[in-house]
Specification:
Elements lengths: L1 E9 L3 H19 L2 E7 L4 H7 L7 H5 L4 E6 L8 H6 L2 H7 L4 E7 L17 E7 L9 E4 L7 E4 L5 H17 L4 E6 L7 H13 L6 E6 H10 L6 E4 L1 H14 L7 E5 L7 E5 L16 H13 L3 H17 L15 H14 L4
Parallel strand pairs: 1-2, 1-3, 3-12, 5-10, 8-9, 8-10
Antiparallel strand pairs: 4-5, 4-11, 6-7, 11-12
The structure holds nicotinamide-adenine-dinucleotide, 3-isopropylmalic acid (IPM) and manganese (II) ion.
């Protein structure tokens, strides 16, 4: 069986890391005899916007809905298009219309990478952020009044639905239950945000009754960010609303040395629509065009895509190849964000070659 994958590079370093993601996927699918068929689209980028006045064509949903997965680079180039226009016109549409309500983001300190947190070794940091991905603080409910006057008011509501909260909590509890430590941490702020966050806490408590083996704790988001830095070893599965999950999923990878390696899976677990796989990082205009972006976030996202498509062994082999190359510590190969003087391509090639060299599936 062949799987159809839609590829959208987007902007900035998205254009540089996507080829390395594809190179690694080609190497691993060849080795495991998996058939992926790639189709590239130029929409979902700021250059497309400059030409067409919109981020996506009107029939984008029809064009993409029957793909088995979407493989995305990064989008956004604030000098060309304001961020809220480019992001709400592309990535956030995909997440919402394809009901990708889980954003799964692993945070793992890899061998060979030095954590900025003193004394932390691989094994000390190994958790998942499970981020609600379709509602919460990222709502389109609100408006602007009395524009341009002293009485100007802007309002944007947080929306939590029972369905929306319960389904992300259920996913997070199931994940915690499947892991050896069986621990779930909820990100809250029910001391200050007095309606939605107490509701979130209430739903966590209700869901917990169905998972007696899972140890549950919760922290307000402010101290939780501190604990990510001070005690990253406390965490196993961390579940949060859309905004809290966003913040935690940059902070977590930063604690593991660089956000350049962090992957993410925007999942529609029911499989009604394609899921989307992309690095956590953005288009990084500050380093775009220099050929030094770390491609591991993109490559690891490819491994998450393989896992989602049912190819666990191939996904594991790909992650192992990433680890082996990182562990080798070859400065000629590694990108500058992880202490090397190599390039996007040297690191991507080394990972693809490692997969090809490893003949025992
Ligand atoms: P960013 O993630 O693009 O960059 C933050 C910092 O991390 C920069 O210094 C950058 O050089 C570095 N960095 C990021 N990825 C790296 C990599 N692979 N290798 C080495 N260094 C890397 O975040 P930002 O600067 O806040 O945003 C830039 C643009 O990207 C904005 O338009 C923003 O809206 C967009 N963005 C898009 C996504 C996405 O597509 N999912 C995610 C975040 C930000
Ligand atoms: C992410 C990004 C996006 C988000 C932005 C670019 C809209 O930061 O994927 O983490 O906030 O979800
Ligand atoms: Mn983010």
């Amino acid at each position: 069986m062949s799987h159809r994958i839609a590829v959208i590079a987007g902007d900035g370093i998205g254009i540089e890391v996507i080829p390395e993601g594809l190179r690694a996927l080609k190497a691993v699918t060849e080795r495991f005899d998996i058939a992926l068929e790639f189709q590239t689209f130029d929409f979902g980028s700021c250059d497309y916007y400059l030409e067409h006045g919109k981020m996506l064509p009107d029939d984008w949903f029809e064009q993409l809905k029957d793909f088995d997965a979407l493989f995305y680079g990064a989008v956004g180039w604030p000098e060309k298009v304001p961020d809220h226009i480019s992001l709400w016109g592309s990535l956030l549409q995909f997440r919402r219309r394809f009901d990708q309500y889980i954003n799964l983001r692993p945070c793992k300190l890899m061998p060979g990478i030095k954590s900025p947190l003193a004394g932390r070794e691989p094994g000390d940091i190994d958790f998942y952020v499970v981020r609600e991905n379709t509602e919460g603080e990222y709502s389109s409910v609100g408006g602007k009044m009395f524009e341009g006057t002293d009485r100007e008011v802007v309002i944007q509501d947080t929306v939590m639905t029972r369905t929306g909260v319960d389904r992300v909590l259920k996913y997070a509890f199931e994940l915690a239950q499947s892991r050896p430590r069986k621990k779930l941490t909820s990100a809250t702020k029910s001391n200050g945000i007095s309606i939605t966050m107490p509701y979130w806490d209430e739903r966590v408590e209700a869901m917990a009754t169905g998972y007696p083996e899972v140890a549950v704790d919760k922290f307000h988001i402010d101290i939780l960010t501190a604990n990510f830095v001070l005690h990253p070893d406390w965490f196993d599965v961390v579940v949060g609303s859309n905004l809290f999950g966003d913040i935690l999923s940059d902070l977590g990878p930063a604690c593991t040395g660089t956000i350049g390696i962090a992957p993410s899976a925007n999942i529609n677990p029911e499989g009604n629509f394609p899921s989307l796989f992309e690095p956590v990082h953005g288009s990084a205009p500050d380093i775009a065009g220099k050929g030094i972006a770390n491609p591991i976030g993109q490559i690891w996202s490819g491994a998450m895509m393989l896992e989602h498509l049912g190819y666990q062994k191939a996904a594991d082999a790909l992650v192992k190849a990433i680890e082996a190359v990182l562990e080798s510590g070859d400065a000629q190969v590694l990108t500058p964000d992880i202490g090397g003087n190599g390039t996007t391509q040297s690191l991507g090639r080394a990972i693809a070659e490692r997969i090809a060299a490893d003949i025992s599936p």
